[in-house]
Amino acid sequence: MSLKHGLLGLLNYGDMTGYELDKAFKVSLNFFWQAQTSQIYRELNAMEKQAWLISQIIPQTGKPNRKLYKITDLGRAELKKWLSKKDLEEDLNVKNVFLMKMFFSAEVNVSETIDTLKRYKAQCLGDLQAMSQTGSVISDYGQNLENKKSMVYWASTATFGVYYLNMCVKWAEDTIKTLEEIS
Q1: What are phi and psi of 57, to 5 degrees?
Q2: Burial environment of residue 94 by CB neighbours within 10 A (0 to 12, 13 to 18, 19 or more)
Q3: Closest Cα to residue 117, out of 172, 183, 49?
Q4: Contact of 131 with 31, CB cutoff 8 Å
Q5: Which of 48, 90, 99, 165 is deepest in the core (most CB within 10 A)?
Q6: Is the separation of the CB atoms in 88 and 36 below 8 Å?
Q7: Residues 113, 175: Cα–Cα separation, whole Å
Q8: Mean pLDDT of 119-124
Q9: For residue 104, which phi and psi values (nearest 5 degrees)?
Q10: What's the CA gap between 116 and 112, in Å, rounded?
Q11: What letter would DSSP give residue 108?
């Protein structure tokens, strides 16, 4: 996925400010695609130049003006084109720095690797705790949708996240046990 397509997907649900897009991105897509706020605004500017979206300045009294983004027909067509691509090989490519480091960890002290795995497990458990809020977030955002079917897809993606994080915790526990046996 490109960040542009994720933003187009969010805008397809309704007009949003950059702040709202950033917030929506972080509570919905952040599990599988991370983006900094500055990246989001940079992409919004680029997408506007491509005519995938338009923006409107909304004046406010006593506060900075808001910039509201709206997807265009051209943006919707790009989103549908991207969604229709059937190249699973490209979609399933995984780049994981953590696993690359684990692969070569025989070069460091086993206790360091165990400590790293314990921190990894703790991070995964923290992420699982955060995922427990997903149901209410889906419900809150879904209330404004005409097509409630979207909520099914959102929930399915969240369920994948829960399964994945549980697998990561189990893997870390098993790996720690194995490393403790060889040290």
Answers
A1: -85, 130
A2: exposed
A3: 172
A4: yes
A5: 165
A6: no
A7: 10
A8: 97
A9: -100, 10
A10: 6
A11: S
